[in-house]
Specification:
Length: 908
């Protein structure tokens, strides 16, 4: 059987080969003797007089068009063409080219009977194979301002025929003018338009239209079309008539009544829906809201509503949308309904008397970045309230071998602030089963409500509020400030976000086609430059500062926010406490929807308030290498070209004569005016931990080499000008097993492994000592650019891989040396008489030893020396003298013993 099959296949192959060899085409379509071309031609100017088609391989055949109803057609037989030809054609008027000068069609597009149908439109270069829609209708119709409507029609019309009619609800709108925008110009479908024709118009209304009512456009004989919202939200008229300046949006509760206020200018109607539960299926009690001025809807409901849940329902264009209040202060499980609660009733004992406030310059802060779960979920952490707010403030916790963990570890370390990864209500974690899921939390759902998975009860909104306040109070009692990582640059949902449901297209940056812009790489970006979004962000930030006593804010993708908004936030916080910290990521994750000149990006930092900081990826990548290339080294792990990056970071990114900006890898400008604007770091939640990056870039390094690089990194960050910041666990060599994007990985990957502290206690003590040094010595915390230039001087006469500088004022002088090389150097020191406070293995404020005017700098090490002017013998000479004295003493003892023995013999 198989032999017969092979013979059949072989015969077929040979047959095909013979056909090809004979020049006979092998095709599913048989060769025909002639082709019949049918051309269907539409002209929007309806002028079909004296038109003909010129066609053929050499344009040798001319056939007149026959005018049909609404178009013209021509049919012609083609004989001198083959099945694979591209046949040129032109449309002529009275012998002159009128359209489609350089067009062609393919005979291969013929049907099995040799008929080719092509469809042409006036001015369009497209040769279509299917019938085109040539019915007159509206395309895009967009409200650009309260008095201006942009109209795009699908088929160009005479400008004089643009007799549009507008309706605002039931009322006809008085039109002042209809202006053709592209008369005789370019059209996307029809090319260059004939004079007197246009496809785009602008309608000017004599009176502003009213939002909240359907706006329709009509033209005789056409289907009516609804007018959509365009750039109206950025128009002066909208900001004049619809921006609300009150501070009472949301639900304002008293025992006697609750007042609801919603901003939704485009809604036709609005209701408050009251529920007994946060996620049940019960039918809500619906209460109609009244329309007020400036786009506000309001309602007062009498009686005590404490504990009830609520949402808003708006009607727009005859469709209903239900959403949680953006200003809600509490919610039920998974954040789908807001909750009305008595906020003062959630204050823990002593909260109103909480007097803690961080007082000082931003450079006095030492920031420790931490995820709520990471501190406590390790099995042997000794912390009982694992993964919860309460776990952050448990005192006296240790591992089974007695090593301090949790809060006691943080206190022992000496930092000033904990920065918590997002603790507002997030979407990704299912609060009904939160123990089995992990997320960093950069998917904001409800901005003014704590995340329920960190509370002991996610169903009752008051519990999460109270337990977060207890956490803040507990840290304050230990002298530790709390910084919130806030994510106002995007929302977890797009069309389903509460912002978009209640006021579509306003709170987000949108494309002209109605899609979401995506500078966040999270599918949308918010429009901070718009008045009501700016108002919401400022209101939210100040709410956290006042209601929860938050001490600082770290802005995710701050580069997506406009600088005016950031400066306004700073002003609002200053009215509460000018020492509240403010800093963020000075970049975006894509192409932002506002000009770079407006963005709060790193290069524009110098234009913002001196107390708004940006993360320095310059010093981060300069120290350890690119975060995007695991194997690429930096200064501490083998890259000899990174010394200028280290200098740039040491100077806090401010203009300094000792920094050659042309040799800095990432920046081409000194982007900070003052060191208070620079956050220095080498690791954070994003990308590899420092330990994992060092392991990836130097895979052959042993434990001691990794520890040495880690220490050198810490010394650079904690002695540089600016605000020092590091990831929790960096001080004990934290690893995530090489997971560089652990945003939804398990606790097993993300948790701090407290057993590593005992194993690397020397590394922990090194961080501890550097922190103590920084706190005690103001020269490491200079506040202005002028102070940096005046007090910091780089030493030029050092080996290429060595960075050395002095810090001095009228009271003290420090010498700081970093050796990123694999060999040690003996350096001559400026002046004579120095106390060594920090070397490659030890750090603190106590003198380790003293030197004169020379110092042996070990490879991969940092040194901090304090000038005393006391010319001692130096450690080497001291050791030599001690050795000599010991030898002499030993010799003397031997001599005395021999002498005594000699006298004893004489007596005998």
């Amino acid at each position: 059987m198989w032999k017969r099959t092979i013979r059949i296949i072989s015969g077929f192959v040979w047959g095909v080969w013979l056909l090809l060899a004979a020049g006979i085409p092998v095709s599913a379509q048989e060769e025909v003797d002639s082709y019949r071309l049918r051309v269907h031609y539409y002209r929007y100017d309806e002028d079909y007089q004296n038109l003909s088609l010129l066609v053929g391989p050499k344009l040798e055949t001319e056939v007149p068009f026959v005018e049909m109803q609404g178009s013209a057609e021509v049919e012609v037989e083609l004989t001198d063409v083959s099945s694979e030809d591209r046949v040129p054609f032109q449309v002529l008027r009275s012998g002159e080219v009128a359209d489609h000068k350089d067009s062609w069609f393919k005979t291969a597009d013929a049907n099995d009977k040799g008929v080719i149908d092509i469809y042409l439109r006036q001015g369009s270069p497209v040769v279509a194979l299917a019938k085109q829609d040539t019915s007159h209708s509206f395309g895009d119709v967009v409200l650009e301002s309260l008095t201006g409507v942009y109209v795009k029609v699908k088929i160009p019309i005479r400008t004089e025929d643009a007799d549009f009619i507008l309706y605002n609800g039931e009322e006809k709108v008085s039109i002042g003018a209809v202006e053709a925008l592209n008369e005789g110009g370019k059209d996307s479908l029809y090319g260059t338009l004939e004079n007197g024709y246009a496809s785009e118009f602008m309608i000017t209304c004599l009176e502003p239209v009213k939002l909240g009512q359907e706006i329709l456009i009509e033209k005789k004989g056409w289907e009516p079309c609804a007018v959509t919202m365009g750039s109206i939200y950025d128009s002066p008229e909208f900001n004049r008539d619809y921006v609300y300046d009150g501070d009472d949006l949301g639900a304002s509760y008293t025992k006697e009544q609750t007042c609801f206020k919603l901003w939704a200018p485009t809604a036709a109607s609005a209701q408050v829906l009251l529920y007994e539960t946060g996620d049940g299926n019960e039918e809500p009690a619906a209460h109609d809201m009244s329309r007020g001025e400036k786009g506000i809807w309001f309602l007062e409901i009498q009686g005590d509503l404490n504990g009830l849940y609520y949402t808003y329902k708006v009607t727009r264009e005859e469709k209903e949308y239900e959403a949680i209040d953006p200003y809600a202060k509490a919610c039920g499980v998974n954040g789908i309904r807001g909750q009305i609660i008595y906020m003062e009733g959630t204050d823990p004992e002593g909260f109103q008397e909480d007097a803690y406030r961080f007082i000082g310059s931003p450079v006095d802060a030492i920031i420790y970045e931490l995820h709520v779960r990471d501190l406590s979920t390790y099995e042997d952490s000794g912390i009982q309230d694992k993964g919860k707010f309460g776990g952050l403030t448990e005192a006296g916790t240790t591992t089974s071998d007695g090593t301090k963990t949790g809060l006691d570890h943080i206190k022992e370390l000496g930092i000033t602030h904990i920065q918590l990864l997002p603790v507002f209500d997030q979407k990704s974690v299912n609060e009904k089963n939160s123990g089995n899921s992990f997320n960093w939390g950069y998917d904001p759902m409800n901005y003014n409500i704590p995340e329920g998975s960190y509370a002991s009860d996610a169903y009752d909104g008051s519990v999460r509020v109270k337990e977060m306040k207890e956490m803040v109070l507990g840290l304050h009692k230990e002298g530790i400030g709390v910084v919130m990582d806030v994510v106002y640059n995007h929302t977890a949902d797009n069309f389903e976000s509460n912002f978009h449901k209640l006021m579509p297209g306003y709170y987000h940056r949108m494309s002209p086609q109605g899609g979401f812009l995506n500078g966040s790489a999270c599918e949308n970006e918010t429009a901070s430059e718009r008045a009501m979004m700016r108002k919401f962000i400022i209101n939210s930030v100040t709410y956290w500062a006042k209601e929860y006593h938050i001490d600082g804010f770290r802005f995710d993708l701050m580069g997506l926010h406009d600088m005016e908004t950031m400066n306004e936030i700073r002003k609002a916080l200053d009215e509460i406490d000018p020492d509240i910290l403010m800093y963020g990521e000075g970049w975006d994750a894509g192409s932002a929807g506002i000009p770079e000149s407006m963005q709060s990006v790193k290069r524009n930092t110098y234009q913002m308030d001196a107390r708004i900081g940006a993360f320095s990826d310059d010093i981060r990548d300069g120290i350890k290498g690119s975060v995007f290339e695991a194997a690429q080294p930096g200064y501490i792990n083998g890259n000899p070209k990174r010394t200028m990056d280290i200098r740039f970071g040491i100077a806090g990114a401010v203009n300094h004569p000792g920094v050659n900006i042309s040799k800095v890898s990432a920046s081409n400008n000194f982007w900070a005016a003052h060191p208070t604007q620079t956050v220095n770091y080498v690791s954070c939640h994003d990308n590899y931990t420092l330990w994992d990056k060092l392991t990836a870039s130097k895979p052959d390094a042993d434990e001691q080499e990794l520890m040495a690089m880690n220490r050198l990194s810490a010394a650079i960050v904690l002695t540089s000008q600016g605000i020092p910041f590091f990831q929790a666990g960096e001080e004990i060599g934290r690893s995530k097993n090489g997971d560089h994007n652990s945003y939804k990985s398990s606790d097993l990957i993300n948790q701090i492994n407290w057993s590593e502290k005992a194993e690397r206690i020397d590394l922990f003590r090194y961080y501890q000592g550097l922190i103590e040094l920084r706190k005690e010595c103001p020269l490491f915390r200079l506040k202005t650019g002028d102070e940096v230039r005046e007090n910091l001087s780089f030493i030029e006469d050092v080996p290429d891989r060595v960075v050395a500088y002095t810090l001095s004022d009228s009271d003290n002088k420090f010498l700081v040396i970093f050796n990123g090389d694999e060999q040690k150097y003996e350096l001559s020191l400026p002046d004579r008489g120095w106390d060594v406070l920090v070397d490659g293995k030890n750090a603190g404020i106590m003198t380790l030893y003293s030197v004169g005017d020379r110092l042996t700098v070990e490879s991969g090490s940092a040194y901090v020396l304090l000038y005393t002017g006391k010319v001692g013998l130096g450690i080497e000479k001291i050791m030599a003298l001690l050795f000599g004295a010991s030898a002499a003493l030993a010799a003397g003892i031997v001599y005395i013993r021999r002498w005594r023995k000699g006298r004893e013999k004489k007596r005998l």
